[in-house]
Design goal:
Layout (H helix, E strand, L loop, with lengths): L2 H5 L1 H9 L2 H24 L3 H20 L7 H22 L2 H27 L2
Length: 126
């Protein structure tokens, strides 16, 4: 849990009481937000902020990889995908290039939509 969440009782409570699907969507929301900020900072040649935002997204991918349940066959594919996206964030950070960051953003937006749809179906079935 990040520093903001710990110091914000509302945020801390929403994290502690969220379903696994909701937590996953929260991680995707954070990754999307910080990827967009990393792109903006990189475009403005603000190296310090770009680095900080890139690292936040990489931390989120690390969390996504660490929380996979490998009893499901799809987890291996997701791990590889998250690992690749993590690499692309690092590459964009090192090269100060927005192309890899835009690739990650497109992935995040697409997969968030997939997970959101899955969460809705899960909620509907109880």
């Amino acid at each position: 849990m990040n520093q903001y969440a710990v110091s914000n009782p509302y945020m801390k409570n929403s994290i502690e009481t969220a379903s696994p699907s909701k937590l996953l969507l929260m991680l995707f929301d954070g990754a999307i937000k910080y990827t967009k900020l990393a792109i903006q900072a990189t475009e403005k040649n603000n190296v310090q902020d770009a680095h900080r935002y890139n690292v936040r997204v990489q931390d989120i991918f690390d969390e996504l990889m660490a929380t996979l349940d490998f009893s499901y066959p799809i987890s291996k594919e997701l791990y590889s995908l998250y690992e690749y996206m993590n690499y692309r964030m690092a590459e964009g950070n090192m090269k100060k290039d927005v192309a890899p960051l835009n690739e990650v953003l497109a992935f995040l937006l697409e997969y968030k939509a997939v997970w959101a749809e899955t969460a809705l179906k899960e909620k509907a079935h109880g």
